[in-house]
Design brief:
Blueprint (H helix, E strand, L loop, with lengths): L7 H15 L8 H15 L4 H10 L3 H9 L10 H18 L5 E7 L5 H13 L7 E8 L2 H9 L1 E2 L9 H7 E4 L2 E4 L1 H4 L2 E5 L17 E6 L8 H14 E9 L13 E5 L2 E5 L64 H4 L4 H12 L3 H14 L4 H13 L3 H14 L4 H13 L3 H15 L16 H16 L1
Parallel strand pairs: 1-2, 1-7, 2-6, 7-8
Antiparallel strand pairs: 3-5, 4-5, 8-10, 9-10
Bound molecules: S-adenosylmethionine.
Length: about 475
């Protein structure tokens, strides 16, 4: 098929729209690529010209999924860039394992993970360095814009090209052959949670989508698609997403070093690493001050504004950003929980299965199991909390609020219930409610020692959550 005509005016409109919503940059030198990709989008959707496609994009909805499918490049493979994986083993993880020895928990994020090879490589390295019986809690988050890539990542089935830099012995250890392909073993696969997240949006870091207090972020070969302003804003947000002393690894062809001026630079053989200074405050109280650049406007909503939009900057009708990934945990959860219902939880397996389904992105199944739990045990706070997360994923903020409210009514000690409600109110612009609920969450967190993992928080410590909440209150007070 030959490319559809792209006039100067239409090129500018489409270029600006894609920059605004996705951060993707199509300068004049890439105009032909843009015309090519958009012609494929138009063909898939049955549009005969790019003007119609532009109008459809303005209206929003699944058309964006098709556009993203053709506009993103998911080139990746396991253990890509061996010098960075050597640095991970020899420099980064020894530092983090020492730093986190007291809490024995680690939070890793592969931002722009494509079909999952990168976060799964992290999981394999950790499986080597932390055998299963050491009692560490490791959470690995993989996020991307492209839903097809995320679907493949969750499936965990890979062809030979993904193993182009993987020694056979490593592949044989972690995968089992399935025809001409290889399936990742479930014990590695279940360590990684995949969710959609648009790095060009301002929806992170938040507790709600699990993108805060990270120990390590891999964001490789993603920033090359953005312009300098967007890149600087993303680097700033990734900085905020890291815990003090946390590490950032970017690809080799990534922006020049001045973009990383807030980080310490650490040279390792064959690569440069960035670290948030260990003495940095847990959360900066500035807005995500784009210290070195011009702020980018958050992408505008494509759907008509609702009175209290949960995600006003969503690029799609479907929520673009998922809720904080719920952690799979055994009941009673965490340490220091005073929650009543956890003391006598008669059907822990169904709720655990519901959480596992949510973790795997099988939201319908998660909802069905959560509902079954609630039918059998209407006073199960954890099930109401999970229901709230599922509603949030569906973009139903009112129902989510109701579910969180119920969880808190049943278990008045559930700090995460108050925190989740506060986040929804803040995102919907209901600042007084948000402030009040953040303050309740702070009071509820007083029951924990600073290093305690807080129930329903995916392993975040009480100190981290307190700092997060104080930052949010500061921002609301400005
Ligand atoms: C070349 S792949 C990199 C994969 C992996 N990080 C690696 O280095 O092997 C780039 C990925 O960035 C994703 N991406 C592009 N724009 C994005 C955005 N605005 N938000 C999140 N991910 C994005 C693409 O969908 C694609 O999967």
């Amino acid at each position: 098929m030959s490319d559809l005509p792209l006039s100067d005016e239409l090129y500018q409109c489409l270029r600006d729209l894609l920059l605004d919503r996705l951060g993707l940059h199509f300068p004049a030198s890439r105009r032909t690529d843009l015309a090519r990709s958009l012609s494929l989008v138009a063909q898939d959707l049955g549009y005969s010209d790019l003007g119609r496609l532009y109008t459809a994009l303005l209206v929003g909805g699944p058309v964006w999924d098709t556009a993203i499918r053709h506009l993103t490049i998911g080139e990746t493979y396991f253990f890509r860039n061996s010098s960075q994986f050597a640095a991970l083993r020899e420099r980064i993880l020894p530092d983090l394992l020492a730093r986190r020895a007291a809490t024995r928990s680690l939070r890793l994020w592969s931002a722009g993970c494509a079909s999952g090879e990168e976060p799964y490589s992290l999981a394999m390295v950790l499986a080597d360095m932390l055998p299963a019986d050491t009692g560490w809690q490791v959470s690995i988050l993989g996020t991307d814009l492209n839903l097809d890539f995320l679907g493949r990542a969750r499936e965990g089935l890979y062809g030979p090209w993904s193993f182009r830099e993987t020694p056979d012995a490593v592949r044989n250890r972690f995968f089992s052959a399935e025809g001409a392909r290889w399936r990742l073993r479930p014990e590695i696969r279940r360590n990684v949670i995949f969710n959609r997240l648009n790095l060009a949006s301002s929806e992170y870091p938040t507790v709600t989508n699990g993108t805060m207090a990270m120990d390590l972020i891999f964001c490789r070969n993603v920033l090359i698609y953005f312009n300098e302003t967007t890149t600087r804003a993303i680097i700033d947000r990734l900085y905020e997403a890291l815990a003090p002393g946390g590490w950032l690894v970017v690809g080799h062809a990534e922006p020049n070093a001045t973009t990383f001026h807030r980080f310490e630079t650490v040279n390792a053989p064959g690569t440069v690493l960035y670290r948030k200074p260990p003495d940095a405050p847990l959360f900066a109280t500035a807005t995500y001050a784009y210290a070195a650049g011009v702020p980018i406007a958050p992408p505008k909503p494509l759907r008509p504004a609702t009175p209290a939009p949960l995600r006003s900057h969503s690029i799609l009708r479907e929520p673009a950003t998922p809720p904080r990934p719920p952690a799979i945990r055994k009941e009673p959860p965490g340490t220091g929980s005073l929650s009543r219902q956890n003391l006598a939880a008669p059907a822990p397996d169904i709720l655990a299965e519901a959480r596992a389904a949510a973790n795997a992105g099988r939201w319908e199944r998660a909802a069905e199991l959560a509902d079954r739990t609630l039918a059998a045990e209407p006073m199960r706070a954890g099930a109401h909390f999970l229901r709230g997360q599922i509603y949030e994923h569906e973009g139903q903020s009112d129902q989510a609020l109701d579910a969180y409210r119920r969880s808190l009514y049943i278990d008045p000690t559930l700090a995460m219930g108050a925190l989740a409600m506060a986040d929804i109110w803040r995102m919907g612009g209901q600042n007084a409610d948000a402030r009040r609920s953040y303050r309740s969450a702070l009071r509820l967190l007083e029951q924990f020692a600073p290093a305690d993992a807080v129930p329903e928080s995916d392993g975040a410590s009480a100190a981290e959550l307190r700092a997060y909440i104080k930052t949010q209150i500061d921002l609301l007070d400005k």
